[in-house]
Design a protein that fits this description.
There is one protein chain. By secondary structure, the protein is an all-beta fold. Helix content is about 0%, strand content about 50%. The protein has strands at about 5, 10, 20-25, 35-40, 45-50, 55-60, 70-75, 80-85, 90-100, 105-110, 115-120. The strands form two sheets. Strands 2, 4, 5, 6, 9, 10 and 11 form a seven-stranded mixed β-sheet that branches. The chain has a four-stranded antiparallel β-sheet with strand order 1-3-8-7, with no helix packed on it. It is globular.
Length: about 120
């Protein structure tokens, strides 16, 4: 059974950092592309980042480029999102999702999300 469990969210001041983790089970994260997607209060889903270990590539939304870093830990079967220089507009529930393909495609499994609140 495929499962994704996010952790690491919390309250942080503007300019601060957080690292989100996504523990995967039921598949190997390096065999599929993985994504982070967020939903701010009262807004729709926003794609944040994707990674494909198969082609060693990582992609970011313009809104987070240069501040966020996505990575995988094959040994721990975990996906990470390092978030630096956080802004109030980064406040959202962050979801980890498995992509159907090795490089791109729709997302077929989602975690339940972890809340990140950026506020002073």
């Amino acid at each position: 059974e495929v499962q994704l469990v996010e952790s690491g969210g919390g309250l942080v001041q503007p300019g601060g950092s957080l690292r989100l983790s996504c523990a995967a089970s039921g598949f190997t994260v390096d065999d599929y592309a993985m994504s982070w997607v967020r939903q701010a209060p009262g807004k729709g889903l926003e794609w944040v980042s994707s990674i494909s270990s198969y082609i060693s590539s990582t992609y970011y939304a313009d809104s987070v480029k240069g501040r966020f870093t996505m990575s995988t830990d094959n040994a721990g079967n975990t996906v990470y999102l390092q978030m630096n220089s956080l802004k109030s507009e980064d406040t959202a529930v962050y979801y980890c999702a498995k992509v159907i393909g090795r490089v791109a495609g729709g997302m077929d499994y989602w975690g339940k999300g972890t809340l990140v609140t950026v506020s002073s």
